[in-house]
Amino acid sequence: MGVEETSTSRCQGCVCDQLRTLQTGTEVDVFLSGGVVLEDVVFINLNERTCCAFFTDPVTEPGSTLIVDCETIQAIRIERD
User: Fold this and answer.
1) Residue 52, CB half-sphere, CA atoms under 13 Å: how many?
2) pLDDT for residue 9 is more than 60
3) What's the CA dihedral at 80, 21, 43, 5 to 10 degrees?
4) Residue 68 CA from chain centroid, whole number
5) 32, 53 in Cβ contact below 8 A?
């Protein structure tokens, strides 16, 4: 008899947990493993099935979408107005 998954989310980690409840349209800085920083991006949503976090960068690349695995994000800074 196999173990049944009780949740559709397989995403693990602190940042994935934070993104689950982050309001769409929130401006953040994203710190990736390896030292890359995505500054002043706007959170769109988190796909809990694939762990893909979607962001847009309205200043540097208007109309573009950044797709990042939430499990590879080391930290996020939530921007305040």
Assistant:
1) 8
2) yes
3) 160
4) 6
5) no
Rg of the chain over Cα atoms, rounded to whole angstroms, equals: 14
What single string gives the DSSP state of each residue in 5-72? PS-S----SHHHHHHHHPPTT-EEEEEETTS-EEEEEEEEEEETTTTEEEEEETTTEEEEEEEEEGGG
- Which domains are present in the chain? 15-78 (2.30.30.100)
Which of the pair, 1 or 13, is modelled with greater confidence? 13
Q: What tokens does 13 get?
A: 């980690």
Q: What is the pLDDT of residues 22-47, one digit of tens each?
A: 999 999 999 998 899 999 999 999 99
Share of the chain above pLDDT 70, in %: 88
